[in-house]
């Protein structure tokens, strides 16, 4: 019999059903700000607008961390850190489930990712970085840099959805996710299947 923690993590299909039902997972013809075309888009805050689904998703992710001995042994003296606003509800939900002591989130100010002023060297507990979705991994990478600069060890990292093209490891930890999504990106409209069919484009903001 599997341990209770493992048993209670919903399957990737169950997670995708939640994302479809809440309209966080969208199918169509999307153009990213970098000009890439795709047939799917994840607008993750739509899943987190409902308390019940937000809780199911965050608790499921938290269970992937709780089974890690290095994390479990340091609770509750850990920090949950979000790279951006999209990860804040994930961070609060995971914090709640793990009863972690601290939460931080980074924001972009003048194009640079940073924590709010007056977060000082040595104040951040050993940390888990969580986000709603990891597309390229850049936000996570930038967050690792600012966390390390403040002297905090990184003991975990994860997201509800991770694109398979993104890194699966960072800062010597394996990135946990509830769904690993195989997103096909077309670099431009010239190669895009939906462009060839003349399907109207939807431009997404990020
Ligand atoms: Zn296209």
Features of the shown structure:
single chain, 206 residues, alpha/beta, 6-stranded mixed beta sheet, 3-stranded mixed beta sheet, 32% helix, globular, binds zinc ion
Layout of helices and strands:
Blueprint: H1 4-7, H2 12-21, E1 25-31, E2 37-42, H3 45-48, H4 51-66, H5 69-72, E3 79-82, H6 88-98, E4 102-105, E5 107-109, E6 112-114, E7 127-134, H7 138-149, E8 154-163, E9 169-170, E10 173-181, H8 193-197, E11 202-203
Parallel strand pairs: 1-11, 3-4, 3-7, 7-8, 8-10
Antiparallel strand pairs: 1-2, 5-6, 9-10
The chain binds zinc ion (ZN).
The site of zinc ion has 6 residues, from helix 8.
Detailed description of the structure:
With 206 residues, this protein is an alpha/beta fold. 32% of the residues lie in helices and 28% in strands. The chain has a six-stranded mixed β-sheet, sandwiched between helices. A hairpin with a 2-residue loop joins strand 9 (169-170) and strand 10. The chain is globular and about 55 Å long. It binds zinc ion (ZN).
Condensed summary:
The chain is of the alpha/beta class.
Overall body shape: globular
Strand content: 25-35%
The order of strands across the largest sheet is: 4-3-7-8-10-9
Report helical residue fraction.
Answer: 25-40%
Overall number of strands? 11
Number of helices: 8
Q: Helix and strand succession?
A: HHEEHHHEHEEEEHEEEHE
The biggest sheet, with number of strands, parallel, antiparallel or mixed sense and barrel status, is: 6 strands, mixed
- Overall residue-averaged pLDDT value: 95
Small-molecule binders:
zinc ion
Distance between the termini: 42 Å
Provide the low-confidence segments as ranges.
Answer: none
The secondary-structure class comes to alpha/beta
């Amino acid at each position: 019999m599997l341990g209770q923690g493992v048993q209670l993590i919903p399957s990737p299909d169950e997670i995708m059903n939640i994302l479809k039902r809440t309209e966080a997972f969208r199918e169509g013809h999307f153009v990213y700000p970098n000009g890439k075309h795709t047939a799917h888009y994840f607008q993750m805050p739509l899943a987190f607008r409902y308390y019940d689904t937000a809780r199911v998703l965050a608790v499921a992710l938290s269970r992937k961390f709780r089974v890690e001995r290095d994390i479990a042994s340091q609770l509750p003296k850990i920090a949950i850190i979000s790279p951006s606003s999209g990860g804040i509800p994930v961070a609060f939900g995971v914090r709640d489930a793990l009863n972690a002591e601290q939460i931080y989130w980074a924001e972009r100010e003048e194009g640079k990712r940073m924590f709010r002023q007056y977060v000082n060297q040595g104040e951040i507990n050993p940390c888990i970085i969580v986000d709603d979705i990891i597309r390229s991994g850049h936000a996570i990478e930038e967050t690792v840099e600012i966390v390390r600069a403040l002297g905090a060890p990184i003991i975990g990292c994860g997201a509800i959805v991770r694109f398979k093209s993104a890194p699966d490891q960072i800062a010597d930890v394996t990135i946990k996710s509830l769904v690993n999504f195989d997103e096909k990106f077309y670099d431009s409209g010239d190669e895009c299947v939906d462009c060839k069919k003349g399907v109207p484009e939807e431009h997404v903001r990020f």
